[in-house]
TrEMBL record:
This is Probable allantoicase. GO terms for biological process: allantoin catabolic process; purine nucleobase metabolic process. GO terms for molecular function: allantoicase activity. The keyword Secreted does not apply. Residues 32-181, 200-336 form the Allantoicase domain. The keyword Hydrolase applies. Pfam families: Allantoicase (PF03561). Keywords: Hydrolase, Purine metabolism. It comes from Micromonospora carbonacea. Pathway: Nitrogen metabolism; (S)-allantoin degradation; (S)-ureidoglycolate from allantoate (aminidohydrolase route): step 1/1. It catalyses: allantoate + H2O = (S)-ureidoglycolate + urea. Its EC number is 3.5.3.4. The gene is alc. InterPro entries: Allantoicase (IPR005164), Allantoicase_dom (IPR015908), Galactose-bd-like_sf (IPR008979). Belongs to the allantoicase family.
Amino acid sequence: MSGRPEPAAGRTDPADLADLAALPDLASRAFGGGVVVANDEFFAAADNLVDPLPPTFSPRTFAAKGQVYDGWETRRRREPGADHAVVRLGLPGVVRLLVVDTSFFTGNYPPFAAVDGCAVDGYPGPDELARARWVPLLGRSPLAGDSRNVFPVDVPHHVTHVRLTIFPDGGVARLRVHGDVVPDPRLLPDVLDLAATEHGGRVQACSDRFYGAPQNLLAPGPARVMGEGWETARRRDDGNDWVLVRLGVPGVAHFVDLDTSHFKGNAPGRATLRAADERLGDLDDPAAWFPLLPETRLRPDTRHRFPVDAPRAATHVRLDIFPDGGMARLRVTGRVDAAGRDALAARWRRTRPPAADPTGG
């Protein structure tokens, strides 16, 4: 086992697993994740591991090397050893949950897998990563075929790359690396989207997520279809729906974007946006909240941008939509405050693996 930790599967409540699975997939191609190197990709490319879409399968679809698989598949080993693929995370962060998805791999899945992580600055290539010091995230653990194999992770360090090792060979459809984003403070501009997932923004609570995950609001780029936004069920009462966002970096908002793109017959009629600074008071106190945007009419399928009339520092924002409906994106553009940047720098240092070498050596 080479000192690797034992897998934690089976010791976590299913509700906790669901919460962890709602964290961003740090490895996803949607955030810029990619495969740096794989020792073997004979049957199917390792790039498929980070595809944000669910894996698919078309039976009896053959190419020159056999059945086509939507995943990474290596050849059958005829000597001792293991296969591996190294993934550059699109977002550096602390890994909380790993999913080794073997969907559609039945007689050709690997019986065991392990995952390690490292923190290396810059954009290292295969040779530099081979010299890096890797931290075990998941010990050699059994896998089931045609299944989402889920493993909680309890390692407090942020990583920039992960290495999936399969024993001895076989196919894996997807690798999901859910975790808390820890952005490198040295790479943050003065003006940015304070709420963006890539800057550490996170949905802390919401009233309803029937049709779409609220974390989609903070995703990079414009939504391509309605399904890439947040949409609630139809309300049959006199209430309204809402979402609470912890900003990735505390700061002062100057512009907000409420984007209803693709929502035509189901856009909210109106919305408000409020903010609060938890460093100054309890978020449960209504007096802690101040308006960024008063109640404002929204149009369907429209990217709305509004200036903030009275900018103030905040750590959280709350979007209320009336009465229900769907939103594609929420942007909170502003300046990071000095205390927030200092706190982020301290977190980056605190979570860096002790053995990590900034040069990768």
